[in-house]
Amino acid sequence: MSIEVVTTIADMRALVDSVRGASRSVGLVPTMGYLHAGHRSLVERAAAECDHVIVSVFVNPLQFGPGEDLERYPRDLAGDTATAAAGGAGTVFHPTASEMYPEGEPLTRVIVSKVTEPLCGRFRPGHFDGVTTVVAKLLAICDPDRAYFGRKDAQQLAAVTRMAADLNFRARIVACPTLREADGLAMSSRNAYMSPADRAAAPAIFAALEATAAIVVAGERETSVVEAKLSGELAGRPRLDVEYAQARDARTLAHPDTLSGEVLLAVAARCGPARLIDNVVIDLNGPRPAVDAGEIKGEP
Ligand code: AMP
User: Fold this and answer.
1) How does 172-209 read in b/e, with b if 16+ C-beta sit within 10 Å?
2) pTM of the predicted model, to two decimals?
3) Which of 31, 68, 146, 276 to mutate to test the pocket of ligand 1 (most atoms within 8 A of CB)?
4) What per-residue confidence (pLDDT) applies to 1?
5) Cα torsion angle, 251, 257, 186, 193, sign
6) How far from the centroid of its chain's Cα atoms is residue 20's Cα?
7) At what angle do helices 127-142 and 154-166 cross, to 10 degrees?
8) All domains of the chain, ordered by start, with CATH?
9) Edge to edge, what strands does the sheet with 274-283 contain?
10) What is the pLDDT of residue 298?
11) CB–CB of 27/116 below 8 Å?
12) Which residues, including other chains, have CB under 8 Å from residue 137's CB and lie 6 or more apart?
């Protein structure tokens, strides 16, 4: 299937109009590019559920703080276009920053309170405002029936889901499982920053999440005990500088004393030049706890 790269908002709208005019559904996969198998799984899911899939590739300056990795964020449009096409997308939307922000910094931002405040919100001030603002713009431009987001970015998923509900976007927000390398490390464009020694240390994050999920599955419900286990599993691991290791409600990101419903175990840690985030979700609603740790897909 041929794929088209669209760079202007006007052309993107015209394309969406023609797809919708033919009564075909539109799926959107927002990304910052440098696509890996995790992104590709979102594209494939979108292609299975929607008639026309748009993959946006836009390194959004609004979501990077001062001193973060905006300039060195990896880019590969040719590779991304090939990956998007192989996953079944029909369009790559690749606007410039001046196309998206013609006046420079926008005066209007979409701010989701509460769910954006803990976890990464503490360490990356303004980050989620940048994310929800650009996702709102992409939803306004592409007007998709469904938009696909990875569970790996659990707080982003919670914020975007709440924004789409609060602001009545047409799109249904679809949550997709985290894809992992063979040793459990969550796939991420930022993994490319790590040295071989960092890369060897990084899987300890997922190992700690799994060991902690096991005590929740075994019946532990006290948040402080679960968080102590998670921190203990991470303590002393070489090359990991932990920012947070917490247990929260997966949907609201509330921090109750006793865990119930869908429980998010979330970690952020620096590993060399990379800032890594990862999580697992344990659903306590059913007769037995169900762990969603994503899928191992990488080659050993
Ligand atoms: P990014 O390009 O990092 O902004 O990610 C674009 C989308 O891909 C987001 O919805 C991410 O949550 C999702 N994503 C990133 N890494 C993975 C992964 N390892 N597995 C599944 N989805 C992912």
Assistant:
1) ebbbbbbbbbeebbbbbbbbebbeeebbebbbbbbebb
2) 0.98
3) 31
4) 61
5) positive
6) 27
7) 50
8) 4-176 (3.40.50.620), 189-296 (3.30.1300.10)
9) 240-249, 262-271, 274-283, 290-292
10) 84
11) no
12) 100
For the chain of 300 residues, list the mean pLDDT of each consecutive stretch of 10. 94 98 98 98 98 98 97 97 98 98 97 98 98 98 98 98 98 98 97 97 98 98 98 97 98 97 98 98 98 92
The verdict on the CB of residue 32 being under 6 Å from ligand 1 is yes
Query: For the chain, what is the radius of gyration of the CA atoms?
Result: 19
In the residue annotation, 36 being an active-site residue is answered as no
Angle between helices 37-49 and 77-87 (to 10 degrees): 40
With a 6 Å cutoff on the Cβ, whether 116 touches ligand 1 is no
Q: Which two tokens stand for residue 137?
A: 């713009």
The C-alpha atoms of residue 106 and residue 129 are separated, in whole angstroms, by 12
Q: Specify the ligand 1 atom closest to the Cα of 34.
A: 2
Taking a C-beta distance cutoff of 8 angstroms, is the pair 8, 53 a contact? no
What pLDDT is attached to residue 253?
98
What is the 3-state secondary structure of 157-210? Answer: HHHHHHHHHHCCCCCEEEEECCEECCCCCECCHHHHHCCHHHHHHCCHHHHHHH
* Residues ≥6 apart with Cβ < 8 Å to 299: 182
Locate tokens 């002393």: which residue? 236
Strands 262-271 and 274-283: antiparallel
- H helices of the chain, in order, are 9-21, 37-49, 77-87, 97-100, 120-123, 127-142, 154-166, 196-201, 204-217, 223-234
CA gap 173, 96 in Å, rounded: 25
